[in-house]
Automatic annotation (TrEMBL):
One of its GO terms (molecular function) is class I DNA-(apurinic or apyrimidinic site) endonuclease activity. It comes from Castilleja foliolosa. GO terms for biological process: DNA repair. Residues 1-44 are annotated as: Disordered. The lineage of its organism: Eukaryota, Viridiplantae, Streptophyta, Embryophyta, Tracheophyta. This is DNA-(apurinic or apyrimidinic site) lyase. Its EC number is 4.2.99.18. Keywords: DNA damage, DNA repair, Glycosidase, Hydrolase, Lyase, Multifunctional enzyme, Nucleus. It catalyses: 2'-deoxyribonucleotide-(2'-deoxyribose 5'-phosphate)-2'-deoxyribonucleotide-DNA = a 3'-end 2'-deoxyribonucleotide-(2,3-dehydro-2,3-deoxyribose 5'-phosphate)-DNA + a 5'-end 5'-phospho-2'-deoxyribonucleoside-DNA + H(+). One of its GO terms (cellular component) is nucleus.
Amino acid sequence: MHSPKSIIRVKRPNSPLSPPPTPQQRQSSTTVHKKAISKKPRKILQNPQPVPIADVKWKPLNINKSELYLPLTFPTGQTFRWRKTGPLQYTGPIGPHLVSLRQLEDDGVWYCCHFTDNEDNARIDLFDFLNMGISLDEIWSEFRACDQRFTELALHLEGARVLRQDPLECLFQFICSSNNNIPRITKMVDFISSKGDFLGNVEGHDFFEFPSLEKLALLSENELREAGFGYRAKYIVRTVAALQSKPEGGVEWLLSLRKLDLQEAINCLSTLQGVGPKVAACVALFALDQHHAIPVDTHVWQVATRLIPELAGTRLTPKTCKRVTDAFVTKYGKYAGWAQNLLFISELPSQKSLLPASLWNTDEKVSVKLQTKGHAKMKKEEN
DNA sequence: AGGGGACCTCTGC
DNA sequence: GCAGAGGTCCCC
């Protein structure tokens, strides 16, 4: 009995394909989910029925480009749940809300809710998700003071912000990311997401609320493997079970990690299957307010092994990972993760067009290999 | 404690 | 073919 989910299509007859972003032209076409159709009717009876927003209104956020530039915040590997739905426009779920953001050249960022049960809450949740409690202007000026290269990069990569994501969905996204590429990660995250409540369709993209732990528990390893998760299928199933076994509740347990020290939070996350130093750092930085967490990917590791000679020839372990994190924190301070995020973005091939060639990191992988793996080999041969 | 190797799958050289 | 992808686990 696979009846298609009930959808109310709200289309304005003359509306263009992409939602009009200008203040003069605020209404858009969108698709709204009729939430009354649910597998849990009793819940609907208990709660006031969400009011789908037929006429999507664009509202200003009053955030400058220096504080938030969407193309350097959304498609840069922090989240795999948002989609580009127009020029300088991105759409994605925030809790139970479906939101679009649009950058206007000289008028900051605007947003609209395609679906929500409460517009006031949506705006509050949006500011929280955008991590607006932290001023990029302030922390970047400190990075500039201590790093000439950061200063030069920042000139071209203004507004690269770190989001404050929901810990549960951030965790499963990054478990999917291990030893993986972005298109495939996105596909896997989409599969998991599709188990949550449908929120709407914008520009041909379906969006879902991230599934609850109870819904995630319905996923079997076989189903995940067939969906192309490979060996990560086991990680997902086991991590769901581990979270469900927490006395205070898995979601609450994850949220409680926001109050811990970075190392404690990393240690707790690392008890979960599929969570090593890299994934733990990503979740810590992108969801747990651990602003000095440093996701040590292969590139950071290669740079670090040259900066810290003792690390050359060793492997990325929790211990050596901490060495790298400490080095970054010593250099950049308590928001080191935000600094590293910009350095990471500057290395993305997709963002290189924003940088003058003089700022391209000319380190060829070959030469890095000679100095790291080659070094390791030489050391080994010496013995 | 730390190194070796396997692991799903897909893309690019 | 085979490394590499924003790694992690298991074993020795």
